[in-house]
Amino acid sequence: MKYTDHIPIHRRNQWLIVFSVLFFTIYSDQYTKSVAKNFLENQEIISVNSGLIVFSYVENNAGFLGILKGMPEYVQFILLNICVAIILLYCLYYLFSQKNRTIIHTFSLAVLTGGGMSNLIDRIINNGKVIDFMQFGIGSAKTGILNLADIYILTGSFLFGLLILATDS
């Protein structure tokens, strides 16, 4: 039996997984952003292990890796607040209404949703900005500056995509 075989989880366990994952992703992301604000704001860049991990405080109002930089503020607001909120509401509806899903299906979508919710919470409480504070790299190959929510979104998306590919084949 492969991990992609459809072994549904009990509805109560499904809800437990969803609530646990949402709580963990939102709490851990908000906590690390709070720590970053308290210890990194107005400080020099901190490099660990020859730049493998770099910590610096940035308030980002232009989406993941600044993808919407240069766009009018109202466009950024619509895309990063209204559209994201609609997508997250649909994800929550899907997570709580669908039956007969596998654990990995539920987990991957809950991780993605929790990351998105935490960044949306950040935008609401920080006047449209998300706190980013870490960067990973080896030599000249580096990521943009991001936060745990971004990592959760990417991880959930990757797992969900693998699940879809494995199910279709």
Characterize the structure shown.
The protein is of the alpha+beta class and 169 residues long. Helix content is 59%, strand content 13%. It contains 4 helices and 4 strands, in the order αββααββα. The protein has helices at 11-40, 73-97, 103-125, 148-168, and strands at residues 46-48, 53-60, 130-138, 141-142. It has a 4-stranded antiparallel beta sheet with strand order 1-2-3-4. α1 (11-40) packs parallel to α3, α2 packs antiparallel against α3 (103-125) and α3 packs antiparallel against α4 (148-168). The chain is globular, with a radius of gyration of 17 Å. The two termini are 15 Å apart. 25% of the residues are buried. The mean pLDDT is 89.
Short descriptors:
single chain, 169 residues
Low-confidence parts lasting 5 or more residues at pLDDT below 50? none
Largest sheet: 4 strands, antiparallel
- Taking all Cα atoms into account, the compactness measure Rg is 17 Å
Overall pLDDT = 89
Helix content: 55-70%
Question: What is the structure about, briefly put?
Answer:
This protein has 169 residues and is an alpha+beta fold. It is 59% helix and 13% strand.
List the helices and strands and how they pair.
Blueprint: H1 11-40, E1 46-48, E2 53-60, H2 73-97, H3 103-125, E3 130-138, E4 141-142, H4 148-168
Antiparallel strand pairs: 1-2, 2-3, 3-4
Helix pairs in contact: 1-3, 2-3, 3-4
